[in-house]
Amino acid sequence: MAEYIIKSRAVFDGRADSCKPLAVWIKDDRIKKLLPYDETNAVPADVPIYDMGDKLVMPSFIDAHTHIFTGAVAASEYVCNTLDACHSEQECVEQMAAYVKAHPGQKRIRGTGWFIGNWTEDRMPDKRSLDAYFPNTPVYLECADAHSMWLNSAALAEAGIRPNPDLANGMIETYPDGELTGMLIEPEAYAPAMEKFMDFTDEEMTEIHRHFKQVLAENGVAGLSEMFAEDYTEETYKKYELLKKLDDEEGLYADVYVYTKLFGYTSFEKFFEMKEKLDSRHFQITGLKGFIDGVTETYTGLLLEPYTDRPDTCGEKLPLWPRAKMQEEITAANEAGIQVRLHCIADGSVRMALDMYEEAEKRTGRKDLRNTIEHIENIHPDDIRRFKELDVVASMQPYHLILSNNDKIVRLGKKRCRYEWPMKSITNTGAAFAVGTDYPVVGLDPFQTIYAAVIRKDADGRISGQNPWEAIDMATVLKGYTYGAAYVYQAEDRTGSIEEGKCANLIVLDQNLFTIDPEMIPDTKVLWNIFEGQTIYDRLNNLAGASGI
Fold first, then answer.
1. How many Cβ atoms from other residues are within 10 Å of residue 36's Cβ?
2. Is residue 533 within 8 Å of residue 222, measured between CB atoms?
3. Strand 534-538 with 372-375, pairing
4. pLDDT class for 498, splitting at 50, 70, 90?
5. Which of 135, 252, 303, 388 is deepest in the core (most CB within 10 A)?
6. How many CB atoms are closer than 10 A to CB 117?
7. What is the C-alpha to C-alpha distance for residues 437 and 323, in angstroms, rounded to an integer?
8. Quick one: pLDDT band at residue 546, thresholds 50, 70, 90?
9. DSSP letters along 120-186, please?
10. How far apart are CA 182 and CA 108, in angstroms?
11. CA separation (Å) from 88 to 94, 95, 134, 135?
């Protein structure tokens, strides 16, 4: 195994508020020792020393919230993943037509990233525009927010979609005459379509994940998750077993943390059985996930007060699961020692989650499980302090603010938008904070996420949101993207920071994020990526080959 030192005048360790000069001595897969930058003279002559000068050395990124399976597919040649750049339904259709021309012969046409918040028209698309271009081949287009799918007639038929007004949650949209429009809203409604979207042979899926290993390496990501809350079915086992096999045989370039289905269970033998069978070095069944609401764009975000532009509702068919059942299931999970993470977009769902976590703590006496609330796109100010008080982790995705494209000012009104994506308000309380992307809802690129967190501007330099004072500083976002995310995954004892004895997971960047003009953040590149002591990505004159690491 390798032994070498990386030194820099700018090392961020994942815990402090600034950088410091430091030399990181790596042996095998661990950080052996930390030395002062200028005190490496006593190092044996056969231990190579790589001086990075003023380049930033930091822990590898750990993305606190992703969907690795759909994300790997979205990064593959099988999916058109550029629909986020479209500004209308017609542009999306034309983009898909161009994709099909460049990728002929596919039995299904897949796309992801369309979002009405980016469109000039404020209405949902329907199947007719897709049918005009693709009358015979099934087309499955996943919305950027991962809460809606847009299908053509061929896909509706292939997936067996039928009108069903009695769904427990979600909606299968129809025209006034009862005919399907092609819009499926929320996971229960689009589950059959997603099965087709994700239908690949084992060989195809293995190659998809091999390619995605490199995507993660190039972005400096050493930890991510599967947050779809899948059930304990044969299909789920098959999918997970494929990734476990890849890890066992070849090794993964990142730790993968899986969150399975919470709602519907108060006994968790299936969770522990899956964990026993599938846990491997880099693939871990970690906790449970539930969805309280959807998204405000389709009025499925749960508000405390009615929508500004729909005063007849605080959210359609919400919560997505009966509250009494949720309480029993969360309490039972915590009693069994299992962490729970809840999808909560709006102030109503955030309060409900905090209330249920508080009640679970009263019943179980446990505060050590790192129960987490995901997203928190708006909050009532009375609930901000409760994260710290209840030891609940705030898991947030800064780039979602950019994706929203100021949509919430229409849905929620100016007063409530004072508390949209309230990252600074929450972190100022000292609450545990984790940063992620929700990839493939938005891109995996960490530097776009960091830029959104510290500048709150879009790619064109326009301020996003109604509260720019909720921007956070560089140290806060990087801590959330390293140690904070490791803390959520209950893995901070071995990763997430540069400390003696921990895994040697670190990256070298081409510029120092703490000292550059913030407008340059999105241009940052990973130069060198070390995972468990081994080089997995190298743009620095082939250091891996030169050193044998």
1. 11
2. no
3. unpaired
4. very high
5. 303
6. 18
7. 28
8. very low
9. SS-S---HHHHHHH-SSS-EEEEETTSSEEEE-HHHHHHHT----TT-SS-EEEE-TTS-EEEEEES
10. 16
11. 10, 11, 18, 20
Residues 523-531: contacts with CB under 8 Å, at least 24 apart: 523/447, 524/447, 526/218, 526/219, 526/220, 527/55, 529/60, 529/217, 529/218, 529/220, 529/222, 530/6, 530/26, 530/60, 530/504, 530/505, 530/506, 531/60, 531/217, 531/222, 531/253, 531/254, 531/505
Element (H, E) at 36: none
Q: Radius of gyration (Cα) for the chain, nearest Å?
A: 23
Res 549 pLDDT > 60: no
Helix axes of 202-219 and 234-249: crossing angle, nearest 10 degrees: 60
Assign residue 229 a region (left: φ > 0; alpha: ψ between -120 and 50; beta: otherwise): left
Distance CA 151, CA 185 (A): 11
Count, residues in the chain: 549
The pLDDT tens digits of the residues spanning 128-185 come to: 999 999 999 999 999 988 889 999 999 999 999 999 878 877 899 999 999 999 999 9
Contacts of 20 (CB under 8 A, 6+ apart): 10, 11, 13
C-alpha distances out from residue 545 to 3, 31, 50, 406, Å: 14, 21, 13, 48
Token pair 């070095």 is found at: 281
Q: How much is the pLDDT for 1? A: 61
Helix-, strand-, coil-residue percentages of the chain, each rounded to 5: 35, 25, 40
Under 8 Å between Cβ of 72 and 208: yes
What is the tens place of the pLDDT at every residue in 446-496?
999 999 999 999 888 888 999 999 999 999 999 999 999 999 999 999 999
Could you tell me which of 465, 410, 442 has the C-alpha nearest to residue 83?
Answer: 442
Which amino acid does the sequence have at 122? Answer: D
Contact 222, 203 (CB under 8 A): no
Instruction: Write out pLDDT tens, residues 28-82.
Output: 999 999 999 999 888 999 999 999 999 999 999 999 999 999 999 999 999 999 9
pTM: 0.93
Residue 470 in tokens: 């909720």
